Amino acid sequence: MRVAVMTAPGQVHVEDRPDPQIIEPTDAIIRLSATCICGSDLWPYRGVEKLEGPQPMGHEYADIVEEVGAAVTTVRPGQFVVGSFFASDNTCEICRAGYHSSCIHREGVSGAQGQYMRVPLADGTLLATPEVPSGDLIPGFLAASDVLGTGWFAAVAAQAGPGKTVAVVGDGAVGLCGVLAARQLGAERIIAMSRHEARQRLAREFGATDIVTERGEEGVTRIKDLTGGLGAHSVIEAVGTQESMMQAIGSTRPGGHVGYVGVTHDVQLPGMGLFFSHVHLHGGPAPVRRFLPELMRLIGERHIDPGKVFDLALPLDQAADGYRAMDERRAIKVLLHP
Amino acid sequence: MRVAVMTAPGQVHVEDRPDPQIIEPTDAIIRLSATCICGSDLWPYRGVEKLEGPQPMGHEYADIVEEVGAAVTTVRPGQFVVGSFFASDNTCEICRAGYHSSCIHREGVSGAQGQYMRVPLADGTLLATPEVPSGDLIPGFLAASDVLGTGWFAAVAAQAGPGKTVAVVGDGAVGLCGVLAARQLGAERIIAMSRHEARQRLAREFGATDIVTERGEEGVTRIKDLTGGLGAHSVIEAVGTQESMMQAIGSTRPGGHVGYVGVTHDVQLPGMGLFFSHVHLHGGPAPVRRFLPELMRLIGERHIDPGKVFDLALPLDQAADGYRAMDERRAIKVLLHP
Questions:
Q1: Which pLDDT value is given to residue B265?
Q2: Where residue B23 sits, what CATH number does that domain have?
Q3: What is the CATH number of the domain that holds A238?
Q4: Those residues with Cβ within 8 angstroms of residue B322's Cβ, 6 or more apart along the chain or in another chain
Q5: Which residue in chain A has the smallest CA separation from B270?
Q6: In terms of CA atoms, which chain A residue is nearest residue B99?
Q7: Which residues are CB-contacts of B135 (< 8 A; sequence separation ≥ 6)?
Q8: Do B277 and B295 have their domain in common?
Q9: N or C: more exposed end of chain A, with fewer CB within 10 A?
Q10: Same domain? A135 vs A160
């Protein structure tokens, strides 16, 4: 099969590799007609995260089950399923508490930017739609696999809801999905922080009521100006840098909630600043599986269309162009067709 | 009046100063028959926190109102009242959300280790008992002013409650009050981390079910061993060092809650460690005023006796001996009689 492989920072190509096989009886094989590039794929692309040799890329997937292992009981070949970047058993105490991405049996997945992929712990990881959805819904389901699930977790962690003012730091696909989630969760006011016109437009479409273009200390001041000097009740952090984390914490009122999902590379949170900020801080790798039943229903019934985050579609063989477009912020999120 | 003054690290003496006066019409003057030394007073005593010149010490108080300003309506001379280390208006949006210690009008108080003190924003800050309590209850009410209120906030921030396993990092008066709070809030199992026999004994008396003497990485391993490898649901952090914060975060299961109230001096939280820990982190200066109605009722009705944290009582003039005893961990908490 064809699969995108990263060999070094900035170096992605598509090569032939053997089709994945069932290894454990709990595995499933998925056939992919659409896949995508994630903002987090840019960390190794930019050399911030170290590569351990050539790496088949991709961890977002929503497509047709090709084959299942002997122990798999909840999904069967031919079904359309969605899973997420950590396989989970969905039965351990941590999963039952809603933290599937810290499942005691969790396994990372990779190689979703290809024609087929192996998904471990298929019963716990995959959720099937009632029927195979029409093709125009596939980008939405693909978004549910990571960026929507992650933005949704951030909004829940930030306790976005009725009567709340929510600020969103980060205008990538996750931040934009955070806007959509805050709207669905009933937030009263949603302030998207973005200086990029196309992203501002999508933020408004997803439910943002205000746009703030300032960032860092100036961004914090602007959020305080918009909230009677107090700060937002809920802040979604979807970048993962020192500046963005401090911007998120500084934009939150005492007693408010920061939901952070940007992978926090090279971040050190100063104890005293955090102490006196009085915020609640929660985040980490999103337990997307917790939210899939609700998200897949909302997408299948066309209540939400998170697939709008895909603003560039390319054949899989042009994956390298897709990485470049995202790295240069020419595309919000790139869909790849194997 | 006589008041304890810190002039340099390790240097405390008691001197004569003019009696405090009403300055603002919202002030009250309190006459103190008992006062105390706080663990946080040890930060400047040990030179970790910088002193800006000679500093009248003390911020814990529970005693008789001597005089009130013209605008004060909720307390009157002769009443027994309890207040806390930040004066607050109890009416702003932040106070109404329960974060009095971040009140938009907050003011620090000082000089409680003396015969009289001025309390700003008396209506918002002070709460009176139905009648003047008998003398044996005064240590309990004095504890409510800070260490009990702070331990209680930590337990609430850590979401201690029925069915939960709670671990407590720190065996000072605040940590011990955290144990008491966790018990009152209905926690199933309470693990006190202490290697000090007298403190272990009081921890058990306050409701601890287990004692762990290991600390740092070994302490984390021990907590995991006691919780099926997962970590505690709720962890109270009542120290404020890098080691204790990392011990608290490491002892918490994914999705669990850390309530931290040790003032985080020289602490830097590593972003990646925090991200993948999946914990909820909340804390800061305790909004003691939020909890006073409930705590004062529990003390007045003799349901709890947090006054047991005082294991040394001295005349105010021997304040220096009291500081030494706490610094050398010979006393858990020192009561001073002016």
A1: 86
A2: 3.90.180.10
A3: 3.40.50.720
A4: B37, B312, B314, B331, B334, B336
A5: A268
A6: A255
A7: none
A8: no
A9: N
A10: no
- Using CB atoms, pick whichever of B94, B98, B264 lies closest to residue A274: B264
Q: Which amino acid, residue A273?
A: G
Residue B59 has pLDDT above 90, yes or no: yes
Under the banding of pLDDT at 50, 70 and 90, the label for residue B264 is confident
pLDDT means over runs of 10, chain A (338 residues): 97 97 98 94 93 95 97 98 97 98 97 97 98 97 98 98 98 98 98 97 98 97 98 97 97 98 92 97 98 98 98 97 96 96
Amino acid at A136: D
d(CA A86, CA A35): 16
CB-count burial class (<10 Å; 0-12, 13-18, 19+) for A43: middle
Q: Quick one: pLDDT at residue A264?
A: 87
Angle at B84 between CA A220 and CA B333, to 5 degrees: 115
Same domain, B137 and B239: no
Question: What ipTM does the predicted assembly reach?
Answer: 0.96
Q: Residue B63 forms beta bridges with which residues? A: B81
State whether A99 and B254 contact (CB < 8 Å).
yes
Contact criterion met (CB < 8 Å) for B274 and A269:
yes
Residue listed under structure tokens 């830097």: B268
Is residue A137 helix, strand or coil? helix
Q: Per the structure block, which two tokens stand in for B93? A: 């949006």
CB contact (8 A) between residue B275 and residue A268: no
Q: Where are the alpha helices (DSSP H) in B168-212?
A: 173-184, 197-206
Range of the domain at B52: 2-146+287-337
pLDDT band per the 50, 70, 90 thresholds, residue B145 = very high
Best residue in B239, B245, B264 to probe A by mutation, most A CBs within 10 Å?
B264
pTM over 0.80? The answer is: yes
Q: How many domains does chain B have?
A: 2
In Å, how far is A276's CA from the nearest CA of chain B?
Answer: 6
Closest alpha carbon to A10 in A336, A319, A335, A265? A319
Contact between B288 and B85 (Cβ < 8 Å) = yes
Asked if A74 and A159 sit in the same domain, the reply is no
